[in-house]
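Morning F.,

Quick status update on the modeling queue. The single chain you submitted on Monday has been processed. Sequence for confirmation:
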Amino acid sequence: KEFVEAIESLDPLKRAIFSLLIVGMSNQQIATRLGRKEATVRSYVTRILQATKCSSRTQLAVRAIGSGLE
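Structure tokens below.
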């Protein structure tokens, strides 16, 4: 529940990055898709991981799928 609430509280850009992240896109792919710099995406990924208390992209994806947030 805490994980879902953390995801739901993300702003629209972080939510878009989250959605692309959990389907396996790299920071570069996400940056290209969203018209952002890779460094910006990397920073947002770090913030998303902190907000959700996940230690890796893989853990984030597993928790997202387990929570029905695919």
